[in-house]
Design goal:
The protein has 253 residues and is an alpha/beta fold. The protein is built from nine helices and eleven strands. The chain folds into two domains: 8-165, MoaB/Mog-like domain (Molybdenum Cofactor Biosythetic Enzyme, Chain A, 3-Layer(aba) Sandwich), CATH 3.40.980.10; 171-250, Alpha-Beta Plaits. α3 crosses α4 and α8 runs antiparallel to α9 (222-235).
């Protein structure tokens, strides 16, 4: 584990409906943005289907490599909601019915059918973390946080526990260069080698605006990112300020 300064995370989006294209994934982009804002380094984002072996394999792999694993989807009452089974399999844990969740189902006046009781059946040792914005708690199994797939609910629950993922914030700067990428590649590499605490990326754009390359700089070291910007401003033909009205094509791919 890397600790509180630079926590790392993996996101596992679960659902055949995402893989098949029936629905577009909304949770991945949200988590990319929010984890970045919180200073948590996202190292992996993957989509898997509703099968216990696939979920278990991915959860086990990610739980070993990252400080936090966030899953979305597959926690409802239907036959294809297999996330909790997959997490239990990943850690070799039994599934146990939790009385406090059964009480919640009764409070919502949901019939205690086998289908609904699936939502009260968790991997052994699972923790229930209070979610102020929702009556149902967030489930945590070791370093795996389990979120619903419905975007509105997922965002509410995430924001309630977001500070658990917070680390030292990352400073991000964009520069807009008029020169083509081929002309600036060597200098970018030199600045990157000199200032290794700054992550520098370049993203070419052709015929879309008055700039040809977006240069991104990310760092937790404010002095280093300032030096990097100074060196690039001295070396390249940059716009004096960001474009006033960015188009959707401005986003790097």
């Amino acid at each position: 584990m890397l600790g509180d300064v630079m926590p790392t995370a993996a996101v596992i989006i679960i659902g055949d409906e995402i893989l098949s294209g029936k629905f577009a994934d909304e949770n991945g982009p949200f988590l990319i943005r929010r984890l970045g804002e919180l200073g948590c380094d996202l190292g992996r984002l993957v989509v898997v289907g509703d099968t216990v072996p696939d979920i278990a394999d991915e959860v086990a792999r990610c739980a070993e490599r990252y400080d936090h694993v966030l899953t979305t989807g597959g926690v409802g009452p239907t036959h294809d909601d297999r996330t909790l089974e997959g997490i239990a399999a990943a850690f070799g844990l039994p599934l146990e019915r939790r009385s406090e969740l059964v009480t919640l189902l009764e409070a919502f006046e949901l019939p205690l059918t086998e289908a609904n009781l699936r939502m009260a059946t968790l991997p052994g040792t699972a923790q229930l973390v209070s979610s102020l914005g929702s009556s149902f708690p967030v489930v945590r199994v070791r370093n795996v946080w389990v979120f619903p797939g419905i975007p509105r609910l997922m965002r509410t629950k995430f924001d309630d526990v977001a500070e658990a993922f917070a680390g030292e914030r990352i400073q991000r700067i964009r520069l807009y260069c008029r020169q083509p990428e081929a002309e600036i590649a060597d200098r970018l590499a030199a600045v990157q080698a000199e200032l290794s605490s700054v992550t520098i990326g370049s993203y070419p754009r052709w015929g879309e605006a008055e700039f040809q390359v977006i240069i991104s700089l990310d760092s937790r070291d404010s002095s280093a990112i300032t030096r990097a910007v100074e060196r690039l401003r001295d070396s390249f033909d940059l716009l004096d300020e960001a474009p006033a009205v960015p188009s959707t094509s401005e986003e790097p791919t």
